[in-house]
Automatic annotation (TrEMBL):
Keywords noted in UniProt: Cell membrane, Membrane, Transmembrane, Transmembrane helix
GO molecular function annotations of the record: cytochrome-c oxidase activity
Compartment annotation: Cell membrane
Pfam families in alphabetical order: COX3
Membrane topology of this protein: Multi-pass membrane protein
Species of the source: Brasilonema sennae CENA114
Xref: InterPro entries: Cyt_c/ubiquinol_Oxase_su3 (IPR024791), Cyt_c_oxidase-like_su3 (IPR000298), Cyt_c_oxidase_su3-like_sf (IPR035973), Cyt_c_oxidase_su3_a-hlx (IPR013833)
Keyword field contains Lyase: no
Top-level taxon: Bacteria
Occurrences of domain Heme-copper oxidase subunit III family profile (ranges): 1-198
Protein name as catalogued: Oxidase aa(3) subunit 3
Length: 198
């Protein structure tokens, strides 16, 4: 039979943990909304600049390397698919499978960043190449910072999964990081369409 002291301790734990979960569930979508507003403002600015300038790329440059960017896009989209199955694994309490898929997601994120660096190194123009250079490096660099942040968060949550009992009270942190990663993925797809396809 549970003693009054045990009941009090259990109630105290619930009171202490519930606000944290509520704050995460409420605050994180607001954070993503603010990030979305920033990216949308960048997208609109880029579209207006591109529309007003008939000659966009520097002389001698007809466009960007679509095949390389397409491969990078497939890598990032694949990471979101892997992450989806990692979320399903943790929901079914399959912790070992979750760790493998979660770590694979982070690895794909690192591969994407390496591909982005290779893209920058092989660009036919630099940051100082007018509006085309400035907007390209600003947009891809800002997105790359978010991918890097996502990888760090993925690795942090992976580390937490190695500590017994960390996810006994739920896995809201996993859900939040997953939402952030899917957000970064969607942003890249829009960037790919704007920068490479348009």
């Amino acid at each position: 039979m549970e003693s009054p002291l045990d009941s009090g301790n259990s109630l105290s734990k619930n009171l202490n943990s519930t606000p944290k979960r509520d704050n995460l569930a409420f605050g994180f979508p607001i954070f993503l909304l603010s990030e979305s507003i920033i990216f949308v403002s960048f997208f609109v600015t880029y579209a207006l600049l591109r529309w007003k300038n008939s000659t966009w790329f520097p002389p001698g440059v007809s466009g960007l390397d679509i095949p390389r960017a397409a491969i990078n896009t497939v890598i990032l989209v694949s990471s979101s698919i892997v992450l989806y199955f990692a979320e399903r694994a943790i929901a079914r309490h399959k912790l070992v499978k979750f760790r493998r898929l979660w770590l694979l997601t982070a690895a794909l994120g690192v591969i994407f960043l390496i591909g982005q660096v290779i893209e920058w190194r092989n660009m036919p123009f630099g940051l100082d190449a007018g509006l085309a250079g400035a907007t390209f490096y600003l947009l891809t660099g800002f997105h790359g910072m978010h991918v890097f942040t996502g990888v760090v968060l993925l690795l942090y949550m992976y580390g937490r999964s190695l500590v017994p009992g960390n996810y006994n009270a739920g896995h809201q942190g996993v859900s939040a990081v997953s939402l952030f990663w899917h957000f970064v993925d969607v942003i890249w797809i829009i960037l790919f369409m704007l920068l490479y396809i348009w």
